[in-house]
TrEMBL record:
InterPro entries hit by this protein: MEMO1_fam
Pfam family, one: Memo
Protein name: Protein MEMO1
Coiled-coil positions: none
Family statement drawn from the similarity comment of this UniProt entry: Belongs to the MEMO1 family.
Species annotation: Seriola dumerili (Greater amberjack)
């Protein structure tokens, strides 16, 4: 039996972002240099997963809040785009490759998560087809480069969870969120608008379509900032906003709600919002960046 490490290749490098380590590094440094470190250190961030041409500059506002000196483990929760999934799934890989350097999966945490019986195992093909987690790997590597040998990652593919399952996974992960050495990255674009996405909600009182989309998204952003999972669920039921990372966001909100029961307060603030426009009236997902941090330590 071979003990050789299983590696997930950087399958979207060369298309969704540069496959050249030096070019990618320069791009990330450029975007990060334009962002402000305002509420560092972040305990959790929400950042987009579109191609870097569209969202690289926006994502920098979130990653600028990461403090590599205290972060030892990075949880990355991304939605499943290609396979039906009603639970959460873990990767079969040991190593995630990036054009910058390889990232190591925390097998101890994976083993603990496996023991709960709540997780499925995705195939390597499913893992490499999916972009929602991969798009955060280069930024994670860049943000953590000063301590690159001192941290591990915990990638989790999140399925179309019911409200009760979001609560269950939130409760399970809350103990990890409570640890200041853990960072949570929630992978999500916001409104996907147009016939391609079967979503054409338009509030004409807001003016042009992009204004209506922005109003809808910022309404959701305000609700997320309240850190109340039920309010977010009700917003989604009412407006059906096509937030592709709504289930990872729901898991995070439920994890925060669980911590609040024990008196740990957390604050969530949106730092940036941007839209990416496709051809005609087709809108690609807008991108927004919230950052969450601990407010009180005791």
């Amino acid at each position: 039996m071979s003990n050789r490490a299983v590696c997930r290749e950087a399958s979207h490098a060369g298309s969704w972002y540069s496959a050249s380590g030096s070019q990618l590094n320069a791009q990330l440094e450029g975007w990060l240099s334009q962002a402000q470190s305002t509420i560092r250190p972040a305990r959790a961030i929400i950042a987009p997963h579109a191609g870097y041409t569209y969202c690289g500059a926006c994502a920098a506002h979130a990653y600028k809040q990461v403090d590599p000196s205290i972060t030892r483990r990075v949880f990355i929760l991304g939605p499943s785009h290609h396979v039906p999934l009603s639970r959460c799934a873990l990767s079969p890989a040991d190593i995630y490759r990036t054009p910058l350097y390889d990232l190591r999966i925390d097998q101890k945490v994976y083993a603990d998560l496996w023991k709960t019986g709540l997780f499925e195992r995705m195939t390597l093909q499913t893992d490499e087809d999916e972009h929602s987690i991969e798009m955060h790997l280069p930024y994670t590597a860049k943000a953590m480069e000063s301590h690159k040998d001192e941290f591990s990652i915990v990638p989790v593919l999140v399925g179309a969870l019911s409200e009760s399952k979001e609560q269950e996974y939130g409760k399970l992960l809350s103990k990890y969120l409570a640890d200041p050495s853990n960072l949570f990255i929630i992978s999500s674009d916001f409104c996907h608008w147009g016939q391609r996405f079967r979503y054409t909600y338009y509030d004409e009182s807001q003016g042009e379509i992009y204004r209506s989309i922005e109003h809808l998204d910022k309404m959701g952003m305000g609700i997320i900032e309240q850190l109340d999972p039920m309010s977010f669920t009700n917003y989604l039921k009412k407006y059906r906003n096509t937030i592709c990372g709504r289930h990872p966001i729901g898991v995070l909100l439920n994890a925060v709600a669980e911590l609040r029961k024990s008196g740990l307060e957390m604050n969530f603030t949106f730092l940036n919002y941007a839209q990416s426009t496709g051809s005609g009236v087709q809108f690609s997902p807008p991108h927004l960046i919230p950052v969450e941090r601990e407010r009180d330590k005791g």
